[in-house]
Amino acid sequence: VLPAAPPGTDAALEVLRRVFGYESFRGRQAEVVDAVIGGGDAVVLMPTGAGKSLCYQVPALVRRGTGLVVSPLIALMHDQVDALRAAGVRAEFLNSTQSPDERAEVERALLAGEVDLIYIAPERLSGGSVRSLLDRVAAGPGISVFAIDEAHCVSQWGHDFRPDYLALADLVGRWPGVPTMALTATATEATHRELTTRLHLEGATHVVASFDRPNIQYRIVPKDDPKQQLLKLIRDEHRGDAGIVYALSPNAVEQTATWLAEHGVDAIPYHAGLDARIRAANQSRFLRDDGVVVVATIAFGMGIDKPDVRFVAHIDVPKSVEGYYQETGRAGRDGLPATAWLAYGLQDVVQQRRFIDQSVGDAAHKRKQSANLDAMLALCEAVTCRRRQLLAYFGQPTETDCGNCDTCLNPVETWDGSVAAQKLLSTIVRLQRERNQRFGAGQIVDILRGKRTPRVEQHQHDDLSVFGIGSDISDRGWRSVLRQLIAQGVVQVADDYGTLGLGRLGPAVLKGEHPVRLRHDLEKAAAAHSGSKR
Ligand code: ADP
Ligand code: ZN
């Protein structure tokens, strides 16, 4: 029996060492590289930081011709091209930032066979002129690979759909003998399936890496005073570390960045509303300097390759588990311990539901967005290992708890919330049946607690039989109960105004057919947070 050959063909290893300065392939890179060098197509699902770029860069350099890389972000394109040039690779890009002269020069070089790798923005490829240019390259010096990065952008129901990606499908197979690659860090089976069919890659080698990032500690805390909570996290655990803080709106980004800066954190903002020059300057300061904290909308980070990001914090709940996973995946690419921290509150849920209701798009799209949000909320409300939940969500279930997430480190105390849930549901039902009214969280909690507010008196809600039946639980306690019932699908936010109705499981809970387990944490966690000193 011959000894097994080391993974990676000789030519691939030679390029890896000479050009990139790495000793060996990592994880499942060699499998992908070998398949593509052999002329096969590949679908590559690897978590952020796993090293997807090398999967196409190496075959592009080993095979004859120019490697074609579709990449959606111009900033990222520049970084990649700069890095490749520094390594002696003849890399170019084609995007909307170039002048006609610059473009003409790139075209000339392409046709002369002087380009190893070309990065192209997807919108460039929908035009006929670039297509015919590439046809000439294919017929002349050759195309070595056709790589579609961030391939999940082709998924119409995904969190990051880009219409230009749909047009890429007709380029697949256009140049016979050129292997096509689709790469993404999105891991759900649904996305995998969709990008495979849309890009006609059924016959490809599919490499789905493990999505576990063991060095990332996942923590999700009840949102109380998010700025203070965030500052405490930074001061207690990440003083002087580089980090990314995600917020939903540009406004929240600005306020948080300013506030952190006033409290001695080297924080800078990043969002689409900022002047392009400031944005670029802030991004490069984050990449270049030590210990900078970027406060950003999700516009920031796709493809950011900074290995030593020590924490990613979300002060608003992300729209989907996929988004959350990609964003948190930017922490700890160097493999050293890193924190993924999220503060999550009831207001977020109401607001996100409103976004979905008001969004353009058909009913199916809204249902999908709603399902995405529900999965995210279920993760937030998990009473068991977060990592196991995450991995199961990505179709990679595990047998054991991870020992490195908040629910593992501090097991969550749960209580039987069935009776509380029934009280709350009855209140919603009584208002509907007896008064034909719907109300939001505030009024419902006031009724449960038996508070005679002007609004309660105005509507004579103190006459309801449910008035005061929940006085044994505090305001805060009820908010926690409600948040969890929404996440579990027992209660739902019924409309734009945040009024509440029965969720999918509501009727079963009312009838006592479905027990409700709730986390005990809101008040305790908030108290522990403000009280504990490290
Ligand atoms: P992804 O695109 O999957 O998020 P990247 O391609 O940006 O990841 O790679 C992440 C980091 O890992 C980069 O700094 C890259 O240089 C490094 N890297 C990739 N492959 C290897 C390898 N085989 N050996 C050492 N470092 C690697
Ligand atoms: Zn765990």
UniProtKB/TrEMBL annotation:
Enzyme class: isomerase
A Pfam entry, by short name: HRDC
Name of protein: DNA helicase RecQ
Keywords: ATP-binding, DNA damage, DNA recombination, DNA repair, DNA-binding, Helicase, Hydrolase, Isomerase, Metal-binding, Nucleotide-binding, Zinc
Coiled-coil stretches: none
Catalytic activity: Couples ATP hydrolysis with the unwinding of duplex DNA by translocating in the 3'-5' direction
Superkingdom of this protein's organism: Bacteria
Record organism: Amnibacterium soli
Domain (Helicase ATP-binding) ranges: 33-205
One GO MF term: helicase activity
Family: Belongs to the helicase family. RecQ subfamily.
Known cofactor(s): Mg(2+); Zn(2+)
Residue span, Helicase C-terminal domain: 226-376
Annotated EC: 5.6.2.4
